[in-house]
From TrEMBL, chains A, B:
Enzyme class: isomerase
Protein's job: Relaxes both positive and negative superturns and exhibits a strong decatenase activity.
Cofactor(s) demanded: Mg(2+)
GO molecular function, one term: magnesium ion binding
Entry protein name: Type 2 DNA topoisomerase 6 subunit A
Keywords from the named record: ATP-binding, DNA-binding, Isomerase, Magnesium, Metal-binding, Nucleotide-binding, Topoisomerase
Organism the protein comes from: Halobiforma nitratireducens JCM 10879
Family annotation (Pfam families): TOP6A-Spo11_Toprim, Topo_VI_alpha, TP6A_N
Subunit structure: Homodimer. Heterotetramer of two Top6A and two Top6B chains.
Keyword field contains Metal-binding: yes
Location of the Type II DNA topoisomerase VI subunit A all-beta domain: 139-188
Residue ranges of domain Spo11/DNA topoisomerase VI subunit A N-terminal in the record: 69-135
Length: 363, 363
């Protein structure tokens, strides 16, 4: 699968560069059209439940020095990426920026990392190939998985077959930068529980929640990396596993849920690749704060503003979220995942999660 | 080893509580003495090359309501920790704070997490037992290892034997929260290369640096977690491996090196457990910025202040560091690890690191 993607990605890139030749031959000024990446041109697609680009395009054209320089940089970058794929190598966004200093044409060198990052985003959108398939690695890798999943990872040192409970330490299986190098061989899991904090992830593993409930415990580590969202989506799509998201009970954590489920405005072109619209939110719900009398902190002004802005965010425009967010604005309190410990260290695994999973129809 | 530690830790805790009984019997007001944890009472020990506490002590005594409440909280916490060790369970600092809400005596409940964190530090210092041996887990776990090391991890699901190249994916072996659950079975490594950033860690692994140079590549992930520093120290002490630290070339990264090598003021009581004074700094050195004409950013005012304060930090009072820091203040520039990519993606593994390791006498 990986080799096919690479071949595809390489062809898409070469096609892009070939367009410029065609344009030259037709006597046209070379140009490239890219969807406008501003908030006005991003729409929430009701059908697929994710963010997508609208119809507006902007054109990079060689009819100005500035535009010509942009295309020159694009061509150099395409050349670098095509070579990288050919040699089965990879690099980070930051390396690409620094590497451009070694290019023979000074006009093609990037003046800031924002510029090279944004060009890679352009190329992702125009070619329909993801950064991972260009072999551009993120700076920081994904998080970990613990649960009854047996997988094969294609590494550059050969294949590794790993069971994510039996062949790993307590730290779990470390998700690689590009999870598309993974094949799922066997899975006894009934659902995925994606968890925001390391403290809670460790609690669930210590309490044997993954074993008792056949759960894949995926650590989100705060705002999840692309690799973590991608493998979550693949586990859902390929193995038909329900995805549940377990975070702190505050507006920033609801955004973590939102990015797993619906993607983000910043990466609207990747929604199809990264978002799992079927993902369900387990909690901490504002209703839980009331029901279980959890220890709380007061909402700050920025918490309140974030909640207000979620009320007008299309991703949160459901009866469920409106009710929960309005309740939270009313009680003016927030609670962390780990505050469930106020009812004992086993409450989360013996009572809270089983009850919520049952309510949600997951178990 | 782990079971012995637990037994020891439990006895130390019970001894602490028993002291209060002894004091009652002698007609003394119960009290506990703790080294004062202020900057004035922390000394750099020239002999062992780490930070240690001085002779000043402060006393928590039940001769005031405030003091009595502190001791009450200590006793409840000791009781909780002793039970936890007895049942072979563990918890996080945050869970302890929340859990205190379930204690029957309201006076014993913590009013803030700072209070419970600081009590655990007191108990670590007074008992001479580390937090890990109380089974208090950190919120976030350590980072990863890749290299020719075969180890056995005692997990609560049984033993796992893992080779940190052959049995792991590209993400490497995830260091558990308490690396003292690990036994080193076999090691073909010649040295440790501890690396600050994920981008560089991935570059080294992609280029096969661990294989070619028999290196254990330990990812520090910025300021390293206790677990990462602990396993680095154990690898050094038990397997006699030289430790080299590879970071960005700026004052904040020199502090990362400092915390691996000499510990920090905040955790002076743990220096013996966490610090590796023999660790050597590879770079990026200010001299490298000049020699290799690396891409740079200008020093900010806070960078300059941090460098100045390092000049007066006993950890950096060597000819080497004075020369490097003064050079950096002169050129007013800093460079990242990944800026080595300006000389090509293989420069770091083919040229830079081998030359530095040779200069340093490591290879």
């Amino acid at each position: 699968m990986s080799a096919d993607n690479e071949q595809d990605a390489r062809e898409q890139l070469i096609d892009l560069a070939a367009q410029f030749y065609d344009q030259f031959e037709l006597g046209e000024i070379p140009h490239m059209s890219v969807p406008t990446r501003t908030k006005n041109n991003i729409e929430y697609d009701e059908e697929s439940n994710v963010w997508v680009y609208g119809d507006r395009e902007s054109t990079r054209s060689a009819n100005s020095v500035r535009g010509a320089r942009k295309l020159l940089k694009a061509v150099y970058t395409i050349d670098f990426l095509a070579d990288q794929l050919d040699e089965d190598r990879s690099s980070t966004l930051r390396e690409l920026y620094y590497l451009s200093e070694s290019w023979d044409n000074e006009e093609a060198q990037f003046t800031s990392q924002d510029e090279s990052n944004s060009l890679i985003e352009d190329l992702e959108i125009v070619s329909g190939v993801t950064r991972e398939d260009f072999h551009m690695r993120p700076e920081e890798s994904g998080a970990t998985i613990m649960g009854p999943l047996y997988l094969r990872e294609q590494t550059r040192r050969g294949e590794r077959e790993i069971h994510c409970q039996e062949d790993v330490g307590e730290g779990g299986y470390q998700i690689p930068n590009n999870p598309d190098t993974i094949d799922f061989l066997d899975c006894d899991a009934d659902f995925i529980l994606a968890v925001e904090t390391g403290g809670m992830r460790d609690r669930l593993v210590e309490n044997g929640f993954d074993e008792e409930y056949n759960a894949l415990v995926v650590h989100l580590k705060g705002q999840p990396a692309r690799a973590t969202r991608r493998i979550t989506k693949r586990l859902h799509d390929e193995l038909d596993l329900p995805v549940t998201v377990f975070t702190d009970g505050d507006p920033w954590s609801y955004r973590i849920y939102g990015s797993v489920a619906y993607g983000s405005i910043k990466s609207a072109h990747l929604s199809e690749y990264l978002a799992t619209p079927e993902a369900q939110f387990i909690g901490i719900q504002p209703a839980d704060i009331v029901e279980y009398e959890l220890p709380t902190d007061p909402l700050s002004d920025s918490d309140k503003n974030a909640l207000e802005s979620e009320l007008s965010d299309p991703r949160f425009q459901t009866d469920y979220w409106e009710e929960q967010i309005e309740l939270q604005l009313e009680i003016e309190k927030k609670s962390e995942q780990q505050s469930l410990a106020s009812r004992g260290l086993d409450f989360v695994t013996d009572t809270y999660l089983p009850e919520r999973l049952d309510e949600m129809g997951v178990i």
